[in-house]
Design goal:
Blueprint lengths: L3 H8 L8 E3 L5 E3 L1 E2 L10 H10 L12 H20 L6 E6 L2 H15 L4 E5 L8 H4 L3 E5 L9 H10 L4 E7 L11 H10 L3 E5 L22 E5 L10 E6 L16 E4 L4 E3 L13 H17 L1 H20 L4 E4 L11 E6 L4 H12 L1 E2 L1 E3 L4 H7 L4 H9 L8 E5 L6 H16 L1 H8 L13
Parallel strand pairs: 3-15, 5-6, 5-7, 7-8, 8-9
Antiparallel strand pairs: 1-2, 4-10, 9-10, 11-12, 13-14, 14-17, 16-17
Helix pairs in contact: 2-8, 3-8, 9-13, 10-13
Length: 452
């Protein structure tokens, strides 16, 4: 039985949940946003806090005016709120960035200065933001995944053992943005530390949906580095964070150089500030920090356990509904006991993924994402694409690329929205030829090299 009270309460936290949008026929319906893994709408509390803070907005650090001092305090106090939210060690520092992508790129440049010869162990399921930054600097190994897209821990440990002492960093997503699988990050941390490596967790998809505990330095399960983005946890305005030990950022040059990251400069020398100031050149995004802290406070008030439980119920309901529709193939799902965040990827036989996403939008006002979700190698593996397939797509830019459709849920989504989604998906599949004729005129006919 659905908990209507909790559902309505959570929905009331979010801006725009019932916004009316136009369909293809010109009628208006309430928008259904199943694209939360890309970005989430803001909390009302976040917008209120931004409005309340706006009269006090000022450039932070070094200013002696009241507004500057007040803004600086909010900015600096935010670091401790963030650390407490993820239970970071007291010796960790929080560096404000634009997003998870910038955080990981920053760490890759810092670690490259420390040790160019080190080996980085990644996985086959990473977002490109946790893959590409390592490729041009280090020897990168990839732990494999099974037929369901689950990380193979035995393979990860085997590579740690084979390259014992050379792997200095294991970098892994907390939760996949393609299948939703939650990785056993504490087991991975224990393995990494056993073989002398540190661990970075890409928390972009995990932090908004589940409690994360970085744990103390002396714990074998300690998470050495964590990166995540505010815009995926109901706080727009462009802030991300990178959390890690102070010593990592000492003794190296910052990635970005300019005002704010130096103590003293002459024509003869540059004396850098200590981190995190050294790694936050330019005028900081204080409004982004205000938004993130407000979102964290709201999540803490609701309770991550409440969010987790409700989103799991929604996700299981969605998966069960998809399994009952003929012609739908779900990727990366085994059973309801899977540890996962609230997203699912699927395809419909005979319907190009991007065209299906367009149909759902124009027919029912439903937003889903389609494509390879910036996790190309992982999605390509799930789609069973061969090297020959990929070479063909690489050389033929006129051929539509393969992909998947992803429905991702937020804490404010409701069961009746899933019912509308399933009903319209079933209708589209049963009248597939009609909808292809109606919407497919401007889409490539061939969606695989085998069809040409």
């Amino acid at each position: 039985m659905h908990n209507i009270k909790d559902s309505l309460y959570l929905r009331d936290l979010v801006v725009g949940a019932d916004t009316q949008i136009p369909l293809g026929n010109g009628e208006y319906v309430p928008a259904i946003n199943f694209d939360n893994a890309a970005t989430t709408p803001p909390f009302f509390s976040v917008l209120r806090e931004i409005t309340n803070f706006a009269p006090w907005y000022s450039s932070i650090h070094r200013g002696n005016g009241y507004k500057s001092v007040r803004s600086s305090k909010v900015y600096e106090d935010g670091r401790e709120i963030i650390k407490k939210f993820v239970n970071a060690d007291s010796r960790d520092i929080v560096i404000y960035t634009k997003n998870t992508t910038e955080s990981i790129n920053m760490l890759s440049y810092i670690l490259f200065q420390k040790d160019k010869a080190q080996v980085v162990l990644s996985t086959d399921m990473e977002h490109l933001a946790n893959d590409l930054p390592w490729r041009d600097k280090f020897k990168v190994l990839y732990a494999g995944t099974d037929e369901h897209g689950m990380l193979l821990l035995d393979d990860l440990e085997s590579k740690l053992l084979t390259y014992a002492g050379k792997v200095k960093l294991v970098t892994v997503t907390g939760a996949s943005n393609v299948t939703g699988h939650i990785n056993p990050i504490y087991k991975i941390a224990t393995l990494a530390h056993k073989y002398g490596a540190k661990i970075l967790v890409d928390g972009a998809q995990l932090v908004p949906h589940a409690t994360i505990n970085m744990k103390p330095y002396d714990s074998p399960e300690h998470i050495d580095y964590l990166a995540f983005s505010a815009h995926k946890m109901y706080a727009p305005f462009g802030t991300g964070v990178l959390i890690g030990p102070q010593e990592t950022f000492s003794g190296v040059e910052p990635v970005y150089k300019g005002g704010g990251d130096v103590r003293l400069v002459s024509r003869e020398f540059i004396e850098w500030s200590n981190s995190p100031a050294k790694d936050e050149a330019g005028t900081p995004n204080i409004l982004g920090v205000v938004a993130l802290i407000s979102a964290i406070n709201t999540i803490n008030t609701v309770g991550m356990n409440v969010i987790c439980k409700y989103e799991k119920q929604l996700t299981n309901y969605l998966i069960e509904g998809l399994r009952n529709i003929q012609g739908v193939k779900i990727y990366g799902h085994r059973d309801q006991n899977d540890e996962r965040v609230s997203l699912i990827s699927f395809n419909v036989e005979g319907l190009y993924h991007h065209l299906l996403a367009k149909m759902l939008s124009l027919e029912a006002g439903i937003a889903v994402r389609s494509g390879l979700f910036c996790a190309h190698p992982y999605a390509e593996k799930l789609l069973n694409l061969s090297k020959e397939d990929l070479d063909y797509y690489h050389k033929h830019h006129d051929i539509a690329l393969p992909g998947l459709v992803r429905a991702s849920l937020g804490l404010y989504n409701q069961y009746h929205e899933i019912d509308i989604f399933l009903s319209n998906l079933d209708k589209i599949i049963k009248n597939k030829n009609y909808y292809i004729y109606k919407y497919g005129k401007h889409f490539p006919k061939g969606t695989s090299r085998k069809e040409r």
